[in-house]
Every structure is written in structure tokens, then in C-alpha cells.
Amino acid sequence: MTVIDVHAHVFPRLTRAEGRVLTDAGEPWLRVNGDGTGMMMSGDEEYRPVTEALWDPARRVADMDALGVDVQAVSSTPLMFGYDADPARAADWCDLVNDRILAYCAAAPDRLLPLCQVPLQDTGRACEVATRALAAGHRGVHIGNHVGDRNLDDPGIVEFLAHCARIGLPVLAHPWDMMAAERMRGHMLPWLVGMPAETQLGILGLMLSGAFERIPASLRLCFCHGGGSFAFLLGRADNAWRNRDIVRADSPRPPSEYTDRFHVDSAVFDPRALRLLVEVMGADRVMLGTDYPFPLGEKEPGAVVRACPELDDADRAKVLGGNAAAFFAPAPAPVGAVGGGA
């Protein structure tokens, strides 16, 4: 069966000078040490040590071969989003990053699917960059789950998601810039606590604000990290919707009736958690995701999927690759568009 990883990151080789496209401080950029290691940099600050798989497509494909992965959807590292920057500079930066991701994936076009990024802080520019990237060959767009204090149900972000639905561009939503960092000191608690909470916030925000009622149902949207804490706490959200008018004020349906509006990846690391995730979302809505090549990712892609005894062979095939193949399939051109029609 085909194995497709929908959640895998890249940081193309971008110099400090190129980082100045985004900000005068020259951030972010990649310091390559020449020995297979490097450092993600934010201006002068060392952000995270990394290895060559993050910027070398040959190493990535070799890893994929060794790990039994046929295809990866390749998305930028969230440090690269640039949502705090001037929108015009951020648009130029995204064009630069997107060109580099295309070049990276061109090394193995049958194995690597490029996902673009956009200046999400400016809806008009984000739509323009997304449209341009789709025409250039990108297969999806990678966004953060918020822009400052604007969550995914912000009108401007909802407008962008609706635009992606109209042009047939799949969306991968990733948690980042986690909440309450001052209370999560040490032990990678922002990643262990903040990321699941950020993802649940994004999902429930779209549901309870009524945003899903305003976004075309054709939108292909996937949340990373198994949807965070959403599946485990869905019963709590439904109970609140039924019993408190303030919860259901803007949402005509309970949260559990919107699970057919998005996908999640499988990065939950425990067969018991995956069983619950599939029960909540349905086997058609879960896709393999590993968070490659970072240390908190799944080291044996698909191991948890294969170890989940409640999945039959047909559902296992869907999660490992079948669902992703459909998710990233090129959308038909709109009727009346150039090259479209009968």
C-alpha cells in the first residue's frame, strides 16, 4: 500500500542576507556547519540545532526509502511564517521561500509534494500569494493556527480559507507560537501542552463561531498533531453546546456534527489514542503524519497505524496513504476557467 506522510518540514538553505527580505535583522535563516549539522537562526539567536535532512533533498529521500515512506508533503518550518513582519515584505519573503521549496521538491518530484506559505497577516496578499503558488506547482498551503491574537475564526482568515476552497488549494494548519509561554518553562511544555491546546482552539473556534457555515464545504483542511486535544474533549464541547446558550449562540450544530469538515494527521504516538481519533473522525478523515525530521516526530512512520488492532486492512490503507492521495489530488478547474469546461 502507498504510504504518504502529510506532515513533514523543510528549511531550505536561506542565508542571513536573504532573511533580510523579511526583516532588517535578517531572520530567520539557516546556518549550515558543513558536517551534516546546522542551526536554525532567528537573527543572531540560535533557535534549534538541526540536521541535513531539513535542507538536503537527497538525504530526505534516502530516509524515506529506509523508513518505507513513498511520498511526503513538504511544508516550511513554522519559524519561517513571518506573520509579525510588514505585509509587503512578508509577501516577498513567502515568494522566496515558496520558490526554494519548489526547487527542493523538484529533486524528487514523484516523492515530494511542495506546500507553500503565505503572509496570513494580510488577507489580500495571502490570497494573491496562494494563487500564484498554486499556479507555480504547489500542492497545498501551510498556515499557522493563529496570527497574533487572531484565531482561525477571524474574518480575514476565514476569507482566506474560503479563497483556498474556491481555488482548490488544500490547507495544512499547524500550531505555533504557543499560548502562556511564561507558564510553561522547561521540559518542552509549550510543545507538550501548548501545541495540543492551540490546535483544539483552532478547531473549536471554527465550529463555535459558525465559520464552517461560511466556508465552502469543498475546503480541504487538515490539522496537525492528531487535532491536538480535540478528539478527547469533544464530548465536553458537545455537552457545553447542549446546555449553555452562550456556547451555541453562533453555531447551529453541535461540534460533533462538523467532524466531516476537516482532516487530522495521525501523530498521536499511541494506538489507543489513534483508536479514539478514528472513532471520532472516521477512518476517511485521518492521514499519516510524522513531523519529520524533528525529534518529537514518529521515528517509524506508520508504526502506530499498523499497531492499532481496531483498524482493519482497508482502514489502515486509507490512513497510511489513500486519504492523503485524495486530499492532495489536483482539484478540477472551475467551470469557465482557462483550460476548464467540458
Automatic annotation (TrEMBL):
EC number: 4.1.1.45
Pathway(s) the chain acts in: Secondary metabolite metabolism; quinolate metabolism
Domain Amidohydrolase-related: 4-328
UniProt-listed InterPro entries: ACMSD, Amidohydro-rel, Metal_Hydrolase
Any single GO BP term: secondary metabolic process
Residues spanning the membrane: none
Entry similarity comment: Belongs to the metallo-dependent hydrolases superfamily. ACMSD family.
PANTHER family linked to this entry: 2-AMINO-3-CARBOXYLMUCONATE-6-SEMIALDEHYDE DECARBOXYLASE, 2-AMINO-3-CARBOXYMUCONATE-6-SEMIALDEHYDE DECARBOXYLASE
Pfam annotation, one family: Amidohydro_2
Organism domain of life: Bacteria
Lineage, uppermost ranks: Bacteria, Bacillati, Actinomycetota, Actinomycetes, Streptosporangiales
GO cellular component: cytosol
GO terms for MF: aminocarboxymuconate-semialdehyde decarboxylase activity; hydrolase activity; metal ion binding
Keyword Zinc recorded: yes
UniProtKB keywords: Decarboxylase, Lyase, Metal-binding, Zinc
Subunit description: Monomer.
Keyword Metal-binding among record annotations: yes
Organism: Actinomadura namibiensis
UniProt-recorded name of the protein: 2-amino-3-carboxymuconate-6-semialdehyde decarboxylase
